[in-house]
């Protein structure tokens, strides 16, 4: 008996991790449809891809077509890229929470979102607090398979220039060697490790909840 071919939604498929995840899904025979919701096209030709272009800050207007087996939310911004705090919150809190809400409404039982190490709703640091509040709001939706990934600094090349982040990545190349034991979770992480982990979580039996950076690496490395 032929297994059910799955469909997936990616939010943020033009980003560093989202684009990596897209390539993995395109190569994965378990998936026949990949729906992309974004402001701009990915410029990849595939019968699997179904693009829905529009304002993802107003994600609700996509609700009628926001249907799939799994949703991968890879959208996120940074302080340097989005210095306006109100806009930052709309992106890093508003989009994931609205996506989770639509999952609940449309009967999608697998939702995962990339957060960040240091996310804490009680943090005095605005950016960490927003991530923490997002995590809590997503978990309160009660989606049966909810995974919140908390990576450390994500390595790999980006399209836009981020001098501070570039410097941090060079530093982490040296520091990673010395981060052992409890410090392992602070090692920088490659976007492919995150993407592989997301795919394995979606197709495995891992318990729902928060996945720390070192746990992401372990899950990604398992055969």
UniProtKB/TrEMBL annotation:
Keywords: Membrane, Transmembrane, Transmembrane helix. The chain crosses the membrane at residues 7-26. Residues 12-126 form the NAD(P)-binding domain. The keyword Transmembrane helix applies. Pfam families: NAD_binding_10. The keyword Coiled coil does not apply. It comes from the Bacteria. Gene3D superfamilies: NAD(P)-binding Rossmann-like Domain. PANTHER family: OXIDOREDUCTASE HTATIP2. This is NAD-dependent epimerase/dehydratase family protein.
